[in-house]
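Box 3.1 A note on notation
Throughout this textbook, protein chains are presented in two layers. The first layer is the amino acid sequence; the second is a token string describing backbone geometry. Keep the layers aligned when reading.
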Amino acid sequence: MTEQPAAKVLVVDDEPNIRELLSEALELNGFAVRTASDGRRALAEVARERPDIIVLDVMMPAWTGSRSPASRAKPATAP
């Protein structure tokens, strides 16, 4: 039986302790996790390799999650 690749998660938060806590919890549950500390870095990470899901802080200084392009994007749907 072939194992499926781990789902890719991008955690975006300006608080290092929150990024670390979420990353560890997700990794322990089998997810492949990358992190970004702000919106610009998040966009660069998405351009580098598209994640399956983004966990986005909605109250970051200078670029809130609720105003990000990701929050307005239509979710991908399975066939």
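The beta strands are 8-12, 32-36, 53-56. Helices lie at 16-28, 39-48, 69-72.
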